[in-house]
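Minutes, project check-in
Item: structure for the 127-residue chain
Input as provided by the requester:
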Amino acid sequence: MGVVPDTNIFVSALRSDRGASYAVIPQLPSDQFRIALSIPLYVEYQDVLTRPEHMSGESTAEEVPAFLRYICGIAHRQRIFFLWRPWLSDPKDDMVPETAVASQSRYIVTYNLTDFRGSKNISASRR
């Protein structure tokens, strides 16, 4: 089963080793789910996770690029041949459901439920 993690999941995992997001990281890669990743989403991960305000947690500046390379290495890399924009209330989040639909992932994993409201119906109708 495919899943697309929103950036905030990895931010949370790298800031603290005491949450659900962090608990999943040591279990990767998993036989239960496969992470789908597109180039725009990877660039977003890289941009956000390397910001100084996100370096205040458990991870160091050297560990973040290594973590991103690891995620890229285990993820299903999905090409996007279409853009459905604007789609969500925050256009910066549009790459997440685009990746989910293109990769036929079943789930988007996010803490940002408000901005993704309604994306379940849209993605299901466009598969």
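Outcome recorded: The helical segments are 7-15, 20-24, 39-49, 63-74, 95-102, 119-126.
No further action items on this chain.
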